[in-house]
Amino acid sequence: MFLDFTEEQIRRYSRHIILPEVGGKGQRKINNASVLVVGAGGLGSPGSMYLAAAGVGKIGIVDDDRVDLSNLQRQLLHSTPDVGAEKVESARETLQAINPEVEVVPHRLRLKADNILPLIREYDYVVDGSDNFPTKFLVNDACVMAEIPLSIAGILRFNGQLLTVLPRKGPCYRCVFQEPPPPGLIPSCQEAGVLGAVAGLVGILQATEILKLILDREEEQERQITLVDTNKMSFRSIAVKRNPSCAVCGDNPTITELIDYDDTCDIRTIQGE
Ligand SMILES: [Zn+2]
Description:
By secondary structure, the chain is α/β, with parallel strands linked by helices. The chain has a single domain, classed as 3-Layer(aba) Sandwich (Rossmann fold). It is built from twelve helices and eight strands. It has helices at 7-12, 14-17, 23-32, 44-54, 87-98, 116-120, 133-146, 173-177, 189-192, 196-214, 261-264, 267-271, and strands spanning 34-38, 58-62, 103-107, 125-128, 150-156, 159-165, 224-229, 234-239. It has an eight-stranded mixed β-sheet with strand order 3-2-1-4-5-6-7-8, with helices on both faces. Helix 4 (44-54) links the parallel strand 1 (34-38) and strand 2. The relative contact order is 0.14. Mean pLDDT is 91; it is low at 263-273. The structure holds zinc ion (ZN). Zinc ion (ZN) binds at residues 171-172, 174-175, 243, 246, 248-249.
């Protein structure tokens, strides 16, 4: 099979091409793939950097924020001179510098129920590196509806968790967690902190999962949630099953339209806190 790599591509991707599990054919699959990364933050930074380095053909970056000094402890897409700049622009510069072959598409917006589906349908895979539960559930539900494989992860303090969702084939985020926790119940990284390197670790696990999906090496991972505890340096994978009564991917789904939890489900208001 003639794969039509340039000399430069053969050198750039030689450590992939030499892997029997990748080879020229696998590298070509990576070059032809597109991935949308939600959030140019602690998870999205290492995730997108490794995807760009690997040669993923098109990488979309969604973020509506600007770089803040407090981001730099873990968000390696951005450097000190980028403080104040749009994150998607800073991300694009970094990723293009890593690999000019990759098409990087900045999407400076906040994902909402009314804009997410057309956007994710432009991509083969989605990486959720958002920092809040409403977005995670929105991204999960949209990926299930559009049947787009998704890596979804969370980090806090010294811990992380990771789930790869293969819509209709395995459990989704909602099969495991049902619905977003009440606002304020689980502290955010801003409130409770996160070790920067843990963001890096978990973001790279997400990139690894996506690359394995591109290479058709998903094996069993779609049926487990992986819990990372760097205090104990333990990685625990817990078997999870698709929930037949899941509101979005179950046999009789009750969620058939996307919901903006920010607007419709502020449980704090209901509880009068
Ligand atoms: Zn589900």
